[in-house]
Amino acid sequence: MPAGRVIVDAYVTRGVPIVTVSTAVAQAVAAAPHLASLSGELRRTMLHACADALAAAGREIVPTALEETGLTMARLRGELQRTTDQLRLLGDHAAQPWRRVSAGVAAGGGDVVTVPVPVGPVAVFAASNFPLAFGVSGGDTASALAAGCPVVVKAHPAQPRTGELLGQILARTLPDGAFSLVAGGPEVSLELVRAAGIRAVGFTGSLTGGRALMDAAAARPDPIPVYAEMGSLNPVLVLPGAAVPATVSALAAAVTGSAGQLCTKPGLVVTGSAAFADELADAVAAVPVHRMLTDGMAQAHEKWQAHASAAHRVVAGAGSPAPFAVVVNVDDLAGELLEEHFGPSVVIAVGAAEDVPSRLEGSLTASVYADDSDREAARALLPGLLARAGRIVWNGVPTGVAVCDAMQHGGPWPATSASWSTSVGTEAIERFRRPVALQGLPAELLP
């Protein structure tokens, strides 16, 4: 395959050519017909080649990401494996035939055949908290390519060298124009979304950032969809039979893992046991301090700690950014206590769980810990949770998101902008292709 071009802004210093957003989009538009015409098998080959290239460069990728993020070596090695597995899974899915046929229903007895058509060039915004699996080489990039769409990826400014390295690898592997990388501030983001050639957007980040892109996309003369993953509280309801030490350990690890910088981090735990609340708060506070991804994120975490301490009981560890728990009564749940806060913190609410779901906004996940004695109470909670979450977890933490056919990684606002879509799993491809019904076409003309 001919090499693509990596497009970066001035802060990258490793000699890659600097090309404007308009040039990147023009290249993607030029490449779109070729990519759309590729068979599913060729798309599979293309994505498997990307996975192989990334795996081969692991000894350079992982240390670079380690230096820029502060995440652990084990975490980043696992994330690289997830990234390559995801590319291969989506490539395999792209190779499977997809069409629906209703025989003989058209006028004159013809068939109606529905086939998927790529939407065209996709703008992808890399996330900071998963620099590989949700970054330049992540699921939005992989699913758009699997759908037959070129991508223009905006690297995250917190990881310029990691983003550039991943971009170089993908650009060398993919057809010319199929992949481009841009970088810069908010003005570059808006320019990219407003570019006439861009036909869809994939975003993982803050609610403020996602809403800005949505507004820009809606204000275009031809509005385009923005598939944005944003803020998620991920509530956990611990029923009496499951208020045990193993649950404390699991939740403390989920709250503080990767310094609490996961989109699926439990931000709220509800329990009827004050003793369980105290044990969980102490367990969270006992976790050693871990560097956060950026100074801005660490400052926001410390600001939230100071604000919460002024109004509520806070159990905090030593150091900075300190892990901490805010312990309140269920009746106090409102406002900031029901919002996502990035970092190793959690709100623990003591009281009955049955009224909590109705107070919640949309989330990626909701979890229930229960034993057999709690089944009826859990049954009563499920309708409210189903209305507010994209994934329900039973007796487990929500932080692990399996890359598989059945996964749903999405949820009602403000978790995402499109609750019916997913950014993980094979269904993620459907965001970037649309069904077209072909009525009565001769068989030899069908794609």
| CATH homologous superfamily grouping of the largest domain | Aldehyde Dehydrogenase, Chain A, domain 1
Q: Please report the number of helical segments.
A: 12
The outline comes out as globular
- Cα(first) to Cα(last) distance is 23 Å
* Residue-averaged pLDDT: 94
Query: Pairing-aware structural class of the strands and helices?
Result: alpha/beta
CATH topology of the largest domain: the name is: Aldehyde Dehydrogenase, Chain A, domain 1
Number of strands: 15
CATH architecture of the largest domain: 3-Layer(aba) Sandwich
CATH class of the largest domain: Alpha Beta
Largest sheet, spatial ordering of strands: 10-11-12-9-8-13-14
Order of helices and strands: HHHHEEEHEHEHEHEEHEHHEEEEHEE
Strand content: 15-25%
Radius of gyration: 23 Å
InterPro entries: Ald_DH/histidinol_DH (IPR016161), Ald_DH_C (IPR016163), Ald_DH_N (IPR016162), Aldehyde_DH_dom (IPR015590), Aldehyde_DH_Superfamily (IPR050740)
GO molecular function, one term: oxidoreductase activity, acting on the aldehyde or oxo group of donors, NAD or NADP as acceptor
Keywords: Oxidoreductase
Domain Aldehyde dehydrogenase: 21-344
